[in-house]
C-alpha cells in the first residue's frame, strides 16, 4: 500500500512539473501550484464547500475550492493537511516538506544601539511590532496574487532568505527577506496586485516599512525604504510605483529587503518570482 501511495505521489509531482493540473479523486486535494520546501507555499483545490485545516489551523477556502498554505523557514519535514468534504467525509494528507541548509551571514559595523537597543526605545519597538503583527493577521477573501509576481526592484542579491544573522559578533534572528542592493532613490514597484495594509516612514529596526496584502494571508513587506508613495487601504496593481529604496533603520547601506509571509509563517520571496535577470549583478 505504501508503494502504491509513493507511486501515486510521484505521478502527481511529475504532472506538476509539466505544469498540468492533477485530477482530484473524491475528497482529495489537487495542488495547482506548489513549492514543498521550507519557505515555500502551495495553492491547492478541494471540492467547493469542503473545509481545510493545516498545521492545526483552519484555512480559508474560496467558493471555487482554492486555498493557500505556506511553510515557515523551520517547519518540519512532515506536515498534516486535513480535508473535510461537503458531506462530512474526512481525509488526512501528510505533506513532505524539503528541509534546507541556510547560510551564516556576518554583518559588522552596525550602530550598537541597533543591535542591542537601549531601554528607552523598547516601547517604540513593541509598538512597531504590534503594527506589523496586526497587518499579518489579515485574511482577505480576494485572490489578488492571481496577477502573478515580479521583482519589486532588480539588482544584485546581497542577502538571501533564512540566513542566520551574526550582527556585530552577536547571534540574532534569521534573515527572512531577500536583499537587493541598489542605490537610494531606486523606484520600487508592487510585485503583485494587492491592498496596502501598512505604511510607516520610520520604524526603529526596519526604517521606512510598507506592507501589501495580496489576499488569503499572503503579504509582502518592504523594509529600509527611503520614501513611500502609497497609503493604507490603497489598491495597487502589479508594477505600480510604491516608493523608493533607502538605507533607513538598521542597515549598513542602501538596499530593498523584500519579504513575504503567510500569516505568521515567513516565506522565501525568491520562490515567487523567476531568477533575477542576467546583467543585474546577480
What does this structure look like?
This protein is mainly beta. The chain folds into two domains: 95 residues, Immunoglobulin-like, CATH 2.60.40; 168 residues, Glucose Permease (Domain IIA) (Distorted Sandwich), CATH 2.70.70. Helices cover 12% and strands 36% of the residues. It is built from three helices and 20 strands. Strands 9, 12, 13, 14, 15, 16, 17, 18, 19 and 20 form a ten-stranded antiparallel β-sheet that branches. A four-stranded antiparallel β-sheet has the order 4-3-6-7, with no helix packed on it. Strands 1-2-5 form a three-stranded antiparallel β-sheet, with no helix packed on it. A hairpin with a 3-residue loop joins strand 14 and strand 15. The protein starts with a helix and ends in a 15-residue tail after the last strand. This is M23 family metallopeptidase. It comes from Marivibrio halodurans. GO terms for molecular function: metalloendopeptidase activity.
